[in-house]
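Record 1 of the preview.
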Amino acid sequence: TGSTGVGKTELTKQLAKLLFGNDQGHLIRFDMSEFALDESLDLFRSEITRRVWDMGHADLLLDEVEKASQLVIRMLLQVLDDGRLSDDNGRQVSFLNTYIVMTTNAGAEIYKTIAEYNADDTGSGKDLVMKMKEIRKSLTQTMDGRFPPELLGRIDVIVPFQPLSRETLRKIVVTKLYEMVQEVLSKHGVRVQVSKRVLT
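->
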């Protein structure tokens, strides 16, 4: 949980790389805003069971889970509880070899307060630990209770992400721009120059 752009999705990619040697072959990503309507439940069930069955061992990312339909959230309870889900043909698909990561931007108001008054780029997480009770409460109260207590009760750990300072954001932009410049050079043989004004 955390505000936009703090590295929640990136961390999941790095987890897949650490566990399986790459972040592409074993990362299953769902943008949960695509399953916001109740009618999307069957499509979600079909897609998630097919992809987990095909891969076996995987890092499953449910990105921005708060945007999913309540029916989809309820179905996730079964996955987190039993570790399995039936597909379209009634076949039981096991999730026991799957790491499930859900990201959310819920509780943004708390992170905004932390960013304004308790900026910390050391990674200590001191201020986040003190605000953990508020963060949990915020998850159950935002988005019409999209995170029912029984869902939160089945999650092993909630990891709050510290809002990034302006200086850290600048360093990230510099790193990403450098990677882009290198990629364009290697793929197209073209040198790209980035003006310093871009970073101000």
